[in-house]
């Protein structure tokens, strides 16, 4: 899926207006190494930075990057940067457009000097530095799956060496496909057995390493910071259609382009800069919640330590109000398509082919599920009226910044479940509640610090989810999921009463 676009020089006066910066020299080599995706040979998540990625290249607006690349490997590679300006000579990608492009394939043992310019830095709505990728693009698919990829930061003038940011982390989310690596055959020889069969489906699947920075299952070291630090997380996506990443930071929220979030989506070759001021200390997961990736090990832990002399944004003042919710998990029979008229009308196909049809050995559209439901009081006898459109979803749980949500959770289902929120400061919510058990007051509290609420760039309310985390994937697919809405102080009353500001009514005077 490739096309060319051509930029011609039509007016001699056009050109960069950027004031010149400095020349930054970098010396990079491509080297062949033996890599281990899980060096501890353990799943460190259940037991309880810098890795495969290349070095970070940093530059400011107006700078020139001069990268001396030495190829110490045994085939031709290159370096191609995103986000920078280059002449053909230094582009580093390999395609036939008739121009001389020596940087596109640097032969083994050879050296090449790339010259790249930073014409455009971050805009006013960007963070002080924008993350980009650089990678070998002699054969971009095989080269990147072989490991040649690294992070590049393009910063505002004067942002480098700035005192404001204390900690930086670079996380590359990618299903590294070892089947597409140049070194597959060598790896089979080195690490395979007599039974290794390249055509075998399980073998092919076993070579897809669901990694963050080339490491899986909690093996990524060094993700440590102090509570109150100014932390930048630069996140990157790479790979194929499998690389749809729903990245989640447990325990602390971050700002992404001035909005509050605790998740970010990444696709191949997209990046995001996330600013976090962790005020919640402890050990938390940073992972990909795309269920397939999560279960295949795209999960690590980050640690927030309490440090002397660090000021955190007092997460613990008394709540302005305590809002109580009585929530149950209960098993029901669910029909995904109770009315069949629409389906029959629209799809003139054989009824037996439909996924909601109950023919032969198929289950049809009815399944046993487990759902969250809300009750009026601690007797759990009267269900609260529900908004019809929520259907299988749990009740909407609302809260304002400064408040505390107190959950009385009763497990009416037949196996252990929990209720765990995104985005807010929760205590006790990872504990599994046994069937028939009531999780009493005080043990399930969700505090809503300022860092969980909307910023001035957000709407009055922002949404998160709550879910059961006993077995995140199975609980989710069994039906346990609901919406959590966090609002600015003083805005929720309006929302709940559906009040319309009088300034928006044309005919009020009449
Ligand atoms: Cu993912």
From TrEMBL:
GO cellular component assignments: plasma membrane
A Gene Ontology molecular function term of the record: ferroxidase activity
Domain of life: Eukaryota
GO BP term, example: iron ion transport
Plastocyanin-like domain mapped to chain residues: 54-155
Enzyme Commission designation: 1.16.3.1
Keyword Cytoplasm belongs to the record: no
Top EC class for this record: oxidoreductase
Membrane topology, record value: Single-pass membrane protein
InterPro entries from the UniProt entry: Cu-oxidase-like_N (IPR011707), Cu-oxidase_fam (IPR045087), Cu_oxidase_CS (IPR033138), Cupredoxin (IPR008972)
Localization (cell): Membrane
PROSITE patterns recorded: MULTICOPPER_OXIDASE1
Cofactor entry: Cu cation
Name of this protein: ferroxidase
Biological source species: Poecilia mexicana
